[in-house]
Amino acid sequence: MSTAPQEPAHEPDETTQDAPSTSAVLGAALGSAAQRLGIDPAAQESTGHVVWKAMGGWRGVLESVLPSLAFVVLYTIVPEPLWLSLGVSVGIAALFSLVRILQKSPPSAALGGLVAAGGAAALALWTGRGQETFVPGFFTNSIYGAALLISALVGWSLIGLAVGFLMQEGTAWRADRRKRRAFFWLTIAWASLFFLRLGVQLPLYFAGDVTTLGTLKIAMGLPLFAPMVAVTWLVVRALYPRHAPAQESSS
Description:
The protein is mainly α. The chain has helices spanning 18-36, 47-54, 57-77, 82-102, 107-127, 135-153, 158-166, 177-207, 210-219, 222-239. The protein contains ten helices and no strands.
């Protein structure tokens, strides 16, 4: 049976001088990223609205699903030449990027997906193996999963750092056992999501089953991301009642 994390050996306020400053910078970066996704616990919004904003609305859903879906469908129907399915997939990503550029979206938002799709396609063409297009995603899931897991185990949960910034309380949440425990398990849950993707998809990669791999990649993307955002939102709102004043920042 799993148990709640043990209390830290020292009180949060007695950490070294470097830890709070580092956590403040990291929390600000994570909190800003959450705000760009439309996730802000201080906002008076419904859970469904927050989840939809985090997914990017209809455009975000299409940008996430269509390039991979096009590749899987075309590769299944016409596996050779490989460049055909890859070219269509990258072309769709390029079209979405062009629309963002025309709408004056930030360059990172406009080009990030295109660069990722182009890099994955280049790797697949270089090796001549369709399954190589999924390799960048394996590295992304590994890095995110490891970072979240380690942060939870050392008592500086990344979810807690982000929420602390958003709620303007810095690292004061670490002095609250209830919040610290909630953020620990939320962070573990997010880490488990990334590791679950790896556990399911890696065997298919080594087996060379591109169609099933691509299908499960789509199925384990937004369909799993959305419920996790909803659960995280609900837990955070329970920890921070809407009319409760924000605590002072401890950083």
